[in-house]
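Quiz preparation item.
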């Protein structure tokens, strides 16, 4: 075998074929071997950036002069721009140096070649010492997308030039933010585009994760989507592993229960409750350890959240008290007035939701205390023994009608409430996206507490009826799952 190998090498030298130089590119844009160069050095062919952003124009009839100016500014920043279907601008870096310079400005942390634990602040001077993050590529797909976003946001535009083109822009930071909030708007949206090769590798890893011996491909998910999405999948995987313990204990308790004993009056139920309390505490402790490990492995322990400004935010230009630069300012007392207006606008819908909840509890026969503040005798009689909605009714399934009707009515109220909540949150004029989401979540939680959790609290802590509580939880779960599956309200 060795003689055959030596002979083949002599034939190659005899024909005058030289080995492919490191970094030599072929027509496909990939290295000849598809592997690292000497000592794992990334080849130049794989320094071709993969990131692409799609800028959706607000209108196909956008003025040609405006597009030419915006495209010219992006080209001057080192970006390639292509127009597609007269509606989309496909933006990509001309060369990798555009992204490496941005990574140097943002002080990215990268691992060194000869060490898996030692990291260094990225700069173009240490490019040869950096360990490739994704194959032969210096940055992962997600990192390239983030860097391209920062490059786009750093594109400069002159408001005076746009004023001559009859476009008014504010003083917000960021090229994309200013063009989305301009009057009239130039951009409708901006989003990263998928990369087919990375997406196929990720899909292959997700398919293999269904095997019991394999976990989720967190490494591939992080490379493609970034740390924030990977953090969610890491938590789901950790929770799925830990939930096996209480699930098996509960199953054993049910299988080994004495004859004539149900889950509701099992004498071992208090011990299982204590076990679940201890399990919950240990789960949180070990998850904190796991999240710290993730932060260390992903080099995100020094990162901080980036507050994205909303394009819809408006106000009055005034000097910033710290930087003394002009910045949009919106008085807090005006926002507090809108808070009052939001609560006033949602109060009637919340009141209707409480009334529907009280009617449902009476029709289900859950309120047996005649002194209860929400007891209605004219409705409770239908759930009394022999009533049409009682458990012993001869009409099969009629006892589910109050719960189903409650779910349908609440779903209608929920859709109206969601539109009102979103409109009032917009009127509050929050500066950042995170502030907008926080306000929206508070409104959503307020409605969900009255819609779903209030009946459960009433049954659990006022009536102290575990059997009825279990039936109500099952009914609510079934109705919410099959009648109106959850939507992405926020």
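Solution:
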């Amino acid at each position: 075998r060795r003689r055959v190998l030596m002979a083949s090498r002599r034939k190659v030298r005899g024909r005058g074929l030289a080995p492919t130089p490191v970094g030599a590119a072929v027509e496909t844009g990939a290295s000849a071997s598809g592997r690292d160069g000497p000592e794992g050095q990334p080849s130049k062919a794989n320094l071709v950036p993969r990131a692409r952003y799609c800028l959706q124009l607000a209108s196909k009839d956008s003025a040609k002069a405006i597009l030419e100016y915006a495209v010219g500014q992006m080209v001057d920043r080192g970006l390639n721009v292509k127009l597609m279907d007269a509606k989309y601008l496909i933006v990509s870096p001309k060369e990798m140096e555009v992204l490496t310079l941005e990574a140097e400005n943002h002080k990215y942390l990268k691992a060194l070649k000869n060490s898996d634990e030692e990291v260094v602040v990225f700069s173009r001077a240490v490019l040869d010492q950096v360990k490739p993050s994704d194959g032969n590529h210096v940055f992962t797909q997600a990192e390239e997308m983030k860097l391209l976003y920062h490059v786009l946001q750093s594109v400069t535009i002159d408001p005076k030039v746009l004023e001559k083109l009859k476009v008014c822009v504010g003083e917000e930071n960021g090229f994309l933010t200013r063009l989305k909030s301009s009057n009239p708007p130039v951009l409708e949206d901006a989003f990263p585009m998928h990369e087919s090769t990375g997406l196929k590798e990720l899909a292959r890893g997700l398919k293999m994760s269904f095997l019991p011996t394999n976990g989720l491909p967190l490494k591939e998910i992080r490379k493609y989507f970034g740390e924030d999405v990977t953090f969610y999948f890491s938590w789901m995987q950790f929770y799925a592993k830990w939930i096996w313990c209480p699930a098996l204990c509960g199953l054993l308790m049910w299988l080994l229960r004495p004859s004539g004993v149900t889950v509701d009056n099992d004498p071992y139920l208090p011990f299982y409750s204590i076990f679940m309390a201890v399990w919950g505490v240990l789960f949180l402790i070990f998850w904190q350890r796991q999240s710290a490990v993730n932060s260390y492995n992903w080099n995100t322990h020094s990162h901080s959240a980036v507050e994205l400004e909303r394009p819809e935010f408006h106000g009055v230009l005034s000097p910033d008290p710290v930087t003394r630069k002009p910045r949009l300012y919106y008085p807090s007392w005006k926002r507090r007035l809108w808070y009052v207006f939001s609560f006033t606008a949602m109060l009637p819908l919340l009141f209707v939701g409480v009334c529907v909840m009280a009617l449902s509890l009476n029709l289900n026969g859950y309120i047996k205390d005649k002194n209860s503040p929400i007891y209605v005798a004219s409705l409770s009689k239908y759930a009394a023994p022999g009533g049409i909605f009682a458990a012993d009714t001869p009409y099969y399934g009629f006892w589910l009608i109050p719960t189903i009707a409650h779910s349908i009515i609440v779903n209608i109220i929920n859709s109206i409430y969601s539109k009102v909540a979103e409109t009032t949150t917009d009127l509050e004029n929050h500066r950042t996206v995170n502030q907008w989401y926080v306000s929206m979540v508070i409104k959503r939680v307020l409605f969900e507490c009255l819609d779903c959790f209030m009946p459960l609290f009433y049954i659990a802590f006022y009536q102290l009826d575990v059997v009825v509580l279990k039936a109500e939880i099952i009914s609510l779960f079934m109705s919410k799952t099959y009648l109106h599956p959850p939507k992405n309200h926020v």
